Each structure stands twice: as structure tokens, then as C-alpha cells.
Amino acid sequence: MTAIQESFGASNQPTYDMSKFVATVCANPGFLMHQHGRGWRIQVTGNARAIIVPERATGEQYLNLIQKIYRAGWSPLSHPWRGEPSLAFEDITPTEACDLLLRIPWYQRKIDDRKVEEWSGAMVRGEWRTTHQGLAFDQNGMLYDGQHRLAAQLLVGITLRFSVARGIQGDTFATVDRGKMRSSAYTFSAEGEKDTFNLSAALRLLWMWENNPVTSWKNRQPVSDDQLRDVLKRHPEIRHSVRRGKPIPRASGRATTLIHYLATQACGSPEIPDQWYAQLSSGYNFQQRDPGLVLRNYFLGEEKDKSARVPVRSMQSVVQVLFLFATAWNNTCTGQQRKIVKAFPDYGVPKIRRPGPNHLFRFPFQDLDQK
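The chain above was modelled as a monomer; its predicted structure follows.
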């Protein structure tokens, strides 16, 4: 859980007394408890490998131990609900979250670490909101819905208010979490933004550009809507880049949009990036071996070596598109005519430059230093 470790520091993560965890686990047949220093050793019948439990554990360690006991065949004891189903808002402490995570039934899906990281990050930043979607328990007291929320809370170590449904009929489980997830694009659309799919993708990439080295990027980088709104507030001009920053269909639109925006920042206005991107789209007025023409031919498949072309998907391809567009832009700014790079470096993307005196832009151009 890298985001939490970075937020709290390794020594500041909340820890939990594990005595109740051990007692709950060993209440089931086949799980035997033995003292092990200041902690415990849980021996599983028929399994030579014991589970070592410390006296206190961080939230991350707690979640790992839960996974271990479930893999060893442990199943939670029933906590039957008496009476009619109920729904109420309750304040759940981290210690209560520990106990409730020991009620996950066998049919629940595995905990998704990336979702837990995303939600725990939102909790750390104060973005978490109480909604009608919270925790649910079936008639046997099993955790019907909410394991990712509780796991995130466990990592953060704060008390949160959840809507809690109890006594839900078990035959309704198949209908839970079957709706379509609302993406950031839908959120921005509701706020009146245009072309929100491309806008949210570009904002996410810009957030990653500002906060993480390119070499550490991953496909499902957790970035919240609040974080994207903050990026848009600080970089409102990116809306223009979203409109003008997709010159070549085969190239990743979010990557080309980011380069357009970074070039706009370097130039102080979108005039030159707009014209260069329009030139990339049409192919007009290039000369042989111009970096822009070589780049265009590369993506449109006119290069002889088609095997080296960038794949369409994956974060690796996005970084490669960033590298290619940034390199072509910089070479055009400095007047260097080079062939396309076939081997991609692992050190990231070059810094975007301003056009220099030897630039190769071949459209009506005004020297930036003379403006």
C-alpha cells in the first residue's frame, strides 16, 4: 500500500492489538493457538506451515494475515441477525473494522489492493464522503458489501460514518455491485465540461506527470475526482489542448494532448503548438527528414520498419508516445533532423523546449523572443 506508507511514513502507520484476531480465528475447529514470543503461532490442522501473528500489526499486516487464514481454509462463524432488516448510519472505529473484516464469507471476491489504495488515499486527503453506499451484512452476520471500504479504513486508522444495512437476505447478493460505475468523465460532464472522456484522461496524465516519475507510472493509477478538479483549476488552459491535441489517430490522445499542453506552457501561448499539430495532421509543408514528418509517417505506417511501431494500448505505449512527440518537438525546436528512435529509453521523457533560432517550424512563425 505505497500511498499510505508515503502518507504516514513507515513508523506512523496505525497498529492494532491482535489478541482478538487470534481468539476469533482459533475459535474455529482446526486452528490451534500457541504462544510465540510476544505474539502467537496459529497452527492449521493438516498444514505444516504455521501462521505467525505479532502482538500488534499495522493495517497492511492485518490484511495480509486475513488473506493467509482464508487461504488456509478458515471460515467465519455465524452471527445471526434477529429481527427485521435494518438500515442506519453508524460511526465505525478502526478496531471495529478489524472485527468486521473477519466476517467475509467464502463467496466474496478477493480484496483489490488498488481499490483499497485509491479509497484509503481519499480518506487521508479528507475526500471521503458518507453516502447511502456503505456496509451490508446478511442474515448470518456475514459482510455482504463493504470489505474494500473497511480495508481502506483499517490502513488509515480513523473513525468513519457508514450507512450500515443488517439482516439482508442472502439471495440478493447477485444483484449487489452490478450497476455501471460512474467514471470521472461522467462527473465532469455533470459539471458542464466538454469532451469529458478526453479531458479526464488528460488531467489524469497531467497529475501523474506532476506527481510521479514516468518510470513509475502504471495503468490504473488511482487518482480521485477531487485531485483531477484541482489539476483543472490550476491548469485551465488544458481544455484548449484537449480540443487541439490529437493530430494522429494511432497515437495515444492523452499523451499527445499532454505534449501539446507542455509545449504551450514552454511557448507561453498555444499558437505554435496549434500550427505544428495541424501540420502533423495534414502533412502539409514538411520537408524530407523534418522531425514532424518522420513522426507522422511512423504512426501512419509509412515507415519501412512497421514492426517497431508503438502498440495502441498500455501505459508503456503512452510513455512511448510521450517520448516520441517530445523528442520530435524538441528536435524541431533545435533544428535537428533525425530518424525516428526505435529503442525507447527507460529514463523517462525529455523536458519540452522553446523554439530556438535554428528551429524547423515551416509555417508563419514569429520569434518568441521578439514578441
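Residues 184-303+311-334 form one domain.
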